[in-house]
What we know:
Elements: E1 4-15, E2 21-27, E3 31-37, E4 56-62, E5 70-79, H1 88-104, H2 112-126, H3 138-152, E6 167-171, E7 176-178, E8 189-192, H4 193-200, H5 211-229, H6 234-240
Parallel strand pairs: 3-5
Antiparallel strand pairs: 1-2, 1-4, 2-3, 4-5, 6-7, 6-8
Amino acid sequence: xxxxxxQGVCIRHWDFSETSQTVSLFGRSLGVVxxxxxxxxxxxSAFDGGIDLLSRGEFGAIVKPGRELATLTEWDLLEVxxxxxxxxxxxxxxxxxxxxxxxxxxxxxxxxxxxxQLVDSLRILGSVQGVDExxxxxxxxxxxxQWSLLCETGYRPSVECDxxxxxxxxxxxxxxxxxxxEPVDGQRWKVRRSTLECLAAIGTxxxxxxxxxxxxxxxxxxxxxxxxxxxxxxxxxxVFAPATA
Length: 245
């Protein structure tokens, strides 16, 4: 089998030896690929001196059916996101997004739209603030990514509610908003209409909504993801502390 080329974001890596790495890459065309990069940590190699976490690059891989690890043949660094190294909140949000990709996607299951959203969100979180420039909308970037992840994996929640209601009920077991009194297994969460409107506007007006609505919407999606996963990832705890609706 020949070498396949793709662009990807490194979502996890481990040291395999003094000179080699094992990495998980989220490829735009290949999906999540776990591979061994032999000699990646050598100063002169086909891997630009190593594959850094949360960097974007073009890579070559030999993927053989039935093998847990692909063989990575090269890595050409294309993009880093500088603010992730200096801003703790941005760093935690980026790690959380990478963690969700690894937990929610099956190996070699491509989601190009989700890949593009991840890169867009990393660019916003990782951009360097210029003089007299406002801070990048990190909360909006995180919200767009969480929403895209749920949509791409088949868990898009229903967020339509009666416009006459100020507070609606959201059931993670039913996958979204339910009518008051509707028989549903499990718990229900009280959610403000403004939070649901913020989510409903993502596809048409990204970042729509005041800061408090965006924060509540982020927490609602995180709580829903926690239900889908059946566990609260440590990265989620760091971002939301605690993650609740």
